[in-house]
Amino acid sequence: MGRHHPSAYGAPAVWNRSRRLWWPVLGVVLVVLLVGGVWRILHTSGGACASPSEYTVAADQSLVDVAEREAARAADSCTSFTIQTVPDSAMPGLLAGGGAIPDLWLASSKARVDTVGTEVGRDLPATTVASSPIVVAGAKPGTPTTWLEALSASDLHAVPVDAPNADAPLIVAVAESGTSGSDQQALTAALVHLAQSAPTVQGEPVSAAARAGGVVVVPESQYLAAKKGDPALAAVVPQVGTVLNQIPLVVTASGDRVTGAETAEKLLAGAFASREGAGDLKAAGLRDADGTAAPDGGVGTVVLLPEPDKSKLAEGERLLAAVAVPLKTLVVMDTSGSMAEQSGSTTRIGMAVAGFDRVVSQISDADAIGLWSFSSSTRGAPWNALVPVAPLAAKRGSVTQRTALVDAMNGLRDRVGGGTALYTTILAAYKQAQREFDPAYSNSIIVLTDGTDEDADTTTLAQLIAGLTAIIDPAKPITINTVGISGDADMNAIEAISAATDGTALRADSEQQMLADFVTAVANRTRK
Fold first, then answer.
1. CB within 10 Å: which end of the chain, N or C, has fewer?
2. Three-state SS at 439
């Protein structure tokens, strides 16, 4: 039997068999290539990408780097992002029409977004894309048990009110106030002290406070950024726990750009939420949205307090604004005969004097207050300039301005009489406030009255409103804040007067309400 030789057709026979196996594979490859080609076409030419869209993202300087990383990660040939460095403090002006409105805003805190939304009267949809627990950081932060202890520390420093995360102390205070056994009044007092009396750092807050031997309340991310330049810095969280400072991505676009911006927001938020995005956040000293992925060198795992109540945060913002910006106000007190009428256990004038005394004794030395009284029984003009406006710490003769005001106000108890020359006095007081306007202060007038104008022969309500409207100067904002004492006060009139200057109009029927209304009037600051 001879050797067997492979057939001349052997090789083709093998190819034919393997070809039957390869056709399905080639088919899958072709489908993948075709689908991939269609996908690439849809994303590179014609169709949905015939006109690529670019979206602007405003971000505070501290967030620009991470914003740029995630924008680069999220961008494709249909959508691109331009990051603009915009301080959080500039956003209200931009959104109110004071410049080009960005499509998106990477804000330093959710609390800041809520405040800005209220200020500009807009709903600002947001998605939390990062977070950072609030800590006490600086030279020697100690081991506080509660935030009350931390906020009451003698070495605590304040950050400027327009700095990123300036609201961090407020956020933790409001959060702790909602826990069992907390002392809300003491927390409020600690915040007021921080705003009024604590030394304010300049520049990078953690390092600046440490150089002065103190501490500040900031997010962990700010502490970690400062620690890169000063490894000796330290940070702690009080034993009671803390709050995550939420960093939201906000849709701020308007008009026909809203729909596209909403889509772009989802794309960019997705980049932050990706595994790669989480790595970028850790590298930037931030955490993911739920705060679980702690960055190296930080405070580690933290106990979380309940989220602070939004309405209490807003109330706290108003309080801090009230005590942080110096006030310059002329208090105009009705001393007409009806102010001698009884109101509970005191008189109407007594109620007003008590409220004035309490407020003036507690507000900052830097606030500037003056006092007028008015009644038709006054000779000549119906008003009497008792104490010119000056800072409360200023000297007036042998006493301070504060003491002079309290003495003058108490002297009005026995000087009531005559009718209510309301309208003429208010117009004169407004003109006086304009002459003495000081841009370093929040300028206002506080009018306390229990009646209806009884001097219509000289100025009517319509003439007063017209007169105010004619002289209002946007460059010199001055509010008229009114308090109607008792049910006899003409609330319709004083509401119209206050509304003309963006002021408040309140009514007091008791000494307690008088005090609350006076505090509200003092707290109503003009926007400069």
1. N
2. coil
| Whether 372 contacts 333, CB under 8 Å | yes
Q: What's the length of the chain?
A: 528
The pLDDT value recorded for residue 281 is 97
Q: Which phi and psi (to 5°) does residue 436 adopt?
A: -100, 15
In one letter, which amino acid is 422? Answer: L
Q: Are 402 and 449 in contact (CB under 8 A)?
A: no
Q: What angle do CA 324, 326, 332 make, to 5 degrees?
A: 130
Decide: residue 462, CB within 10 A, 0-12 exposed, 13-18 middle, 19+ buried: exposed
DSSP secondary structure string for all residues of 308-361: PPHHHHHHHHHHHHHHHSPEEEEEEEE-SGGGGSEETTEEHHHHHHHHHHHHHH
Chain segment 32-57, per-residue pLDDT in tens: 333 333 322 233 333 456 788 999 99
Residue 409's identity, in one-letter code, is: M
List the beta bridge partners of residue 353.
none
Please tell me the predicted confidence (pLDDT) of residue 232: 96
Residues facing 368 on adjacent strands:
328, 391
Query: How many angstroms separate the CA atoms of 347 and 125, rounded?
Result: 50
Tokens of 24: 């399905």
* Residue whose C-alpha is closest to residue 500's, from 520, 482, 519: 482
Nearby residues of 76 by Cβ (< 8 Å), 6 or more positions away: 43
pLDDT in tens, 16-25: 333 333 334 3
Q: Which of 37-41, 165-169, 319-323 has the highest mean pLDDT?
A: 165-169
3-state secondary structure labels for all residues of 53-113: EEEEEEECHHHHHHHHHHHHHHCCCCEEEEEEECCHHHHHHHHHHHCCCCCEEECCCHHHH
Whole-angstrom Cα distance, residue 324 to residue 194?
9
What's the predicted TM-score (pTM) here? 0.61
Place of tokens 């009037």: 521
**pLDDT value at 272 more than 70:** yes
CB 91 within 8 A of CB 247: no
CA distance linking residue 103 with residue 79, whole number of Å: 13
Q: Give the integer Cα–Cα distance in Å for 261 and 258.
A: 5
Task: Of 10-24, 45-59, 196-210, 316-330, give the range with the top mean pLDDT.
Answer: 196-210
